[in-house]
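Aim 2 progress update. The chain analyzed this quarter is reproduced below.
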Amino acid sequence: MSVTEILFTPLLKADPGRPLITHYDDAAGTRIELSRATVKNWAAKTANWLRDEHDVEPGDPVAVLLPAHWQTVGLLLGAWWCGARVVGASFSDAKVAVVPPGGTADADVVAVASLHPMGLGSGAPVDYADDVRVHGDDFMPWEPVAGSTPALGESTVDEVVAQARELGAALGSEPRVLSTLEWDSPSAVLEGFLAVLAAGGSLVQVSNPDAGLLAARRESEKVTRQLG
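Predicted structure tokens:
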């Protein structure tokens, strides 16, 4: 099974309405909260888009060159769901790369994610948010993803899951985690995102953090752990 099926699907089945990510952008003054069910829809659309439009197969490299953001959550989970290997900026010749507005990448296909708080498109020729909308809210892999399949950087599915569970154990059971960590390396994705899934928790992710707001936010969001 894929990273998504192992770490995320059990949370979805247990309580689909529970928040998975609450995203703040302190520079823009925005707050967006997505339930597990809503994230699942984005992930399924992404998996279908990658496989059906761009022929991504298990082990194919997909460069996710985005900041920690709710759109990035759907993209990561969708990429893993169809078996893709998520890579960063140092990887050359990815099959698909998703970049922020103005970003560039060495890839067969470069799509732009607007990072708009409401998920609006960017107007780019290949636009992630607009393109995935036409795809289904459910995804069925054509074949199971093997545990030996590369999933994140140089790590396989089995290795990623084991590392996420080890890090998640330190967060406690079902934590509410506030994080200012960026997901700019495999280790940061593991610590700042996958560990939270492995612990059965939810994430309060803050972009462009205003240090003066964090204390009140920890209280209002009922945070139990903080990263970054």
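The radius of gyration is 16 Å. The longest strand covers residues 19-25. These observations will guide the mutagenesis experiments scheduled for the next reporting period.
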